Amino acid sequence: MAEPHHHTDPTFSSATGYDGGCEGETAGGSDRRTFLKEGLMAVAALTAVAGASVPLEAMTRTYAIGAAGAGLATLSYPIPTADGATIDRANKVILIRYQGMVYALARECPHKGTMVDWQPEQNRLYCPKHKSTFTANGTKIQGKSPRSMDRYAIRLEEGKLIVDTAKVIEGDGTNWATTGVKVG
After folding, report:
1. 141 and 85 inside one domain
2. Is the residue at 95 inside a domain?
3. Range of 44's domain?
């Protein structure tokens, strides 16, 4: 096998644009390796700047603390008239009416914080990221979630449902099973 051909003849000089290195290198040092190194550094710098100014949704986890983050801990909702789900996307709350009870669930999957969706045809909650599923009242069925859905404290007051987003009852934790409101 032939050896790579390098010009090392001292008769070539930097005046001709050639300093005795490999073909394609110039006396100014702008060889391919330097170009790639500087280019990658520029890309890394731009990525760092862009990453610092625009946080990724998957990296940020904010919890509902009232009306669209206004700092209020309580939210008021009308009583759902039929079984099913009412999703408050702004506050990350899901109201579920199921078998004469209403539950206020945090919309985030306990596994990684992905927003769960309601699947009315199966009467269940579903996490699209890792395929966890939950019954209508938030009980874990299967998937990577470590527990059932988290619930918020809820009460009935003057014909309205009052949800206290400052009081999170962790899925399967103390008082979780008794958190809900009986409705007609």
Report:
1. yes
2. yes
3. 14-53
User: What is the residue type of 21?
Assistant: G
Q: Which tokens belong to 108?
A: 């985030």
Q: Output the CA–CA distances (angstroms, integers) from residue 103 to 71, 79, 180, in the order listed.
A: 22, 11, 5
- Say which DSSP state 154 is in: E
Residues 6+ apart with CB under 8 A from 169: 150, 151, 152, 153, 175, 176, 179
Structure tokens at 164: 């206290």
Residue 127 inside a domain? The answer is yes
Q: How many whole angstroms separate alpha carbon 146 and alpha carbon 171?
A: 9
What 3-state class would DSSP assign to 130? coil
**8 A C-beta contact, residue 170 and residue 161:** no
Statement: the pTM of the whole predicted model exceeds 0.70:
no
Length of the chain: 184
Closest residue by Cα to residue 152 from 133, 170, 134: 170
116: region left, alpha or beta (phi > 0 left; psi from -120 to 50 alpha): beta
Residue range 152-175, pLDDT digits in tens:
999 999 999 999 999 899 998 888
Instruction: Please count the structural domains in the chain.
Output: 2
Alpha-carbon distance of 104 to 162, in angstroms, equals 9
User: For residue 3, is it within any domain?
Assistant: no
pLDDT per position as a tens digit, 57-79: 333 333 333 444 445 689 999 99
Q: Are residues 86 and 41 in the same domain?
A: no
Hey, what amino acid is at 153? A
